[in-house]
Amino acid sequence: MPPMSSAFSSGRLGRRALPIIVGIAGGTGSGKTTIAHRIAAGLPANAAVVIEHDSYYYDGPAMPEHLRNAGNFDHPDALETGLLIDHIKALRAGRGAELPQYDFGAHRRLDQTRSVGSVPIVIVEGILALAVADLRALFDLKIFVDTDADIRIMRRVRRDMEQRGRDFSSIREQYYRTVRPMHLAYVEPSKRFADIVIPEGGDNRVALDTIVGRLRYDLSSAGLSTD
Fold first, then answer.
1. Is pLDDT above 70 for 12?
2. How far is CA 53 from the centre of its chain?
3. 49 pLDDT more than 60
4. What Rg value do the Cα atoms of the chain yield, rounded?
5. What is the pLDDT of residues 146-167, one digit of tens each?
6. Which of 32, 48, 187, 218 could connect to 183 by a Cys-Cys bridge, CB 3.0–4.6 Å?
7. What is the pTM of this model?
8. Is 30:76 a contact under the CB 8 Å cutoff?
9. Vertex 61 angle, CA 59 and 63, to 5°
10. Does residue 114 fall inside a structural domain?
11. Does residue 160 lie within any of the structural domains?
């Protein structure tokens, strides 16, 4: 992994016009969603939008049969990443996009969409955000949130029980059957593509301040207010 300073000074951000596309990956429960929203919160109002890769899960019946039958939601093929790529390209071209929304309890895509307009910073987060080459190629800054496995699984258990109404037995079964194997096969290897690796998730204030500071600098360099 290049040092944080070299990742910024190498010019990857500076070579491209706004919007800047930031990709954030990491294992389940790593804190990537927290990082994404804290970066957005550290920027001027309405300067950034956060897009969750999870919203692009195929609708239950449309998911590839081999994954649907296995209940595998952690394989790259479970996500309609091509649609996400189209939406990022639309935002980069200055057009808006209608983003899907997903019901994790029913494993179905909702009829309602989320309207997003053109903004200077687009943040895409998801466990597989860096694992798919065509998606990864769109990111101007690639971040991997690296958190110990025991912390991640405890966060996942709490989230699934409190927010998704699941019991511990089903969470444990899914973790060993699909979550852990897919993490080892796809998520963890994608760390090598990151420009920045953030340990400790959303609690790493130094990393957050550095990233937000650089993005604010880029907004200012483009003539946009950072107040």
1. no
2. 6
3. yes
4. 17
5. 988 888 888 888 888 888 778 8
6. 187
7. 0.88
8. no
9. 65
10. yes
11. yes
Nearest CA-CA partner of 127 in 172, 176, 199, 180: 180
Look up residue 131 and give its amino acid.
Answer: A
**Residue 109's CATH number:** 3.40.50.300
Q: Quote the Cα angle for 112-115-76, to 5°.
A: 75
d(CA 201, CA 147): 6
- Return the C-alpha torsion angle 102, 105, 136, 193, nearest 10: 160
Non-local CB neighbours of 190 within 8 Å, separated by 6+ positions: 25, 128, 129, 130, 131, 136, 144
* 82-111 confidence digits (pLDDT tens): 999 999 999 999 999 999 999 987 889 999
State the pairing for strand pair 97-103/108-116.
antiparallel
Count of CB atoms within 10 A of residue 98's CB?
12
Give residue 220's identity as a one-letter amino acid code: S
Instruction: Write the DSSP assignment of 21-79 as a string of letters.
Output: EEEEEESTTSSHHHHHHHHHHTSPTTSEEEEEGGGGBPPGGGS-HHHHHHT--SSGGGB
The answer to whether position 223 is within a domain reads: no
Question: In this predicted model, what pLDDT tens digit does every residue of 123-140 receive, in sequence order?
Answer: 999 999 999 999 999 999
Give the whole-angstrom CA distance, residue 142 versus residue 25: 8
Q: Is residue 227 part of a domain?
A: no
Instruction: Report in angstroms the alpha-carbon separations of 55 from 36, 81, 174, 199.
Output: 15, 10, 20, 25
> For the chain, how many structural domains are there in total?
1
d(CA 191, CA 115): 31
Range of the domain at 134: 4-216
